[in-house]
Amino acid sequence: NAGVMQNPRHLVRRRGQEARLRCSPMKGHSHVYWYRQLPEEGLKFMVYLQKENIIDESGMPKERFSAEFPKEGPSILRIQQVVRGDSAAYFCASSRGSYYEQYFGPGTRLTVT
Amino acid sequence: SQQGEEDPQALSIQEGENATMNCSYKTSINNLQWYRQNSGRGLVHLILIRSNEREKHSGRLRVTLDTSKKSSSLLITASRAADTASYFCATDEMGAQKLVFGQGTRLTINP
């Protein structure tokens, strides 16, 4: 009964490189959400996806950030040309439907040097 | 603007005492959820309370919701050292599934 899986747990990238963060939802969950957490702050919503569809990306920066949730495989959050300000913990959550509990993964801590 | 705001920002009590944290929000919601986060770790889901519910219990946890005041409280009874963590409330606005988190309450239980 695996929970939400995220990998890698820690990721170090130099400025200008690309970061790819993966999220596998809980079994039976088809809704995936990505959140970002800066140190000492709460989580901020980024994007909400269902299989092959982006439902709400109102929290995504307009440039360099993209997300997908393909028919097969994990959801991917992709950050191109990373900058120091992208350093944060990125959390993925999944739920079995709208307005149900969202269960979170352990997060990926991105450090941009 | 911030949807969920927790109060107090930090709380330190003795083991065995009860801990109460409050959360206020601004818009109409479908439900409100409470999460716990240990330092440097992921979020653990504690409890979900729907907008038509007023109170909910789970073990040593008791959550209340007052939609007229747009506020919720989380009570942890008989606190333990292992309860030391940050606690966040998260709300979803009507018509949106995304969660909006407050800044959290940092709870410290002193042995």
Brief descriptors of the model:
heterodimer, A: 113 residues, mainly beta, 7-stranded mixed beta sheet, 4-stranded antiparallel beta sheet, 11 strands, B: mainly beta, 0% helix
Spell out the blueprint of helices and strands.
The complex is a heterodimer of chains A (113) and B (111).
Chain A: E1 5-7, E2 10-13, E3 19-24, E4 31-37, E5 43-50, E6 53-56, E7 65-68, E8 75-79, E9 88-95, E10 103-104, E11 108-112
Chain B: E1 5-7, E2 10-14, E3 19-24, E4 29-37, E5 43-50, E6 55-58, E7 61-66, E8 71-76, E9 85-93, E10 99-101, E11 105-110
Parallel strand pairs in B: 2-11
Antiparallel strand pairs in B: 1-3, 3-8, 4-5, 4-9, 6-7, 7-8, 9-10, 9-11
Description:
The complex is a heterodimer of chains A (113) and B (111). With 113 residues, chain A is mainly β. Helix content of chain A is 0%, strand content 50%. Chain A has strands at residues 5-7, 10-13, 19-24, 31-37, 43-50, 53-56, 65-68, 75-79, 88-95, 103-104, 108-112. In chain A, the strands form two sheets. In chain A, strands 2, 4, 5, 6, 9, 10 and 11 form a seven-stranded mixed sheet that branches. In chain A, strands 1-3-8-7 form a four-stranded antiparallel sheet, with no helix packed on it. Chain A starts with a strand and ends with a strand. The mean pLDDT of chain A is 93. In chain B, β4 and β5 form a beta hairpin. The termini of chain B are far apart. The model of chain B has no long low-confidence stretch (mean pLDDT 91). The A-B interface holds A 31, 33, 35, 41-45, 48, 55-56, 58-59, 91, 93, 95, 98-107 and B 4, 30-31, 33, 35, 41-45, 48, 88, 90, 92, 96-104.
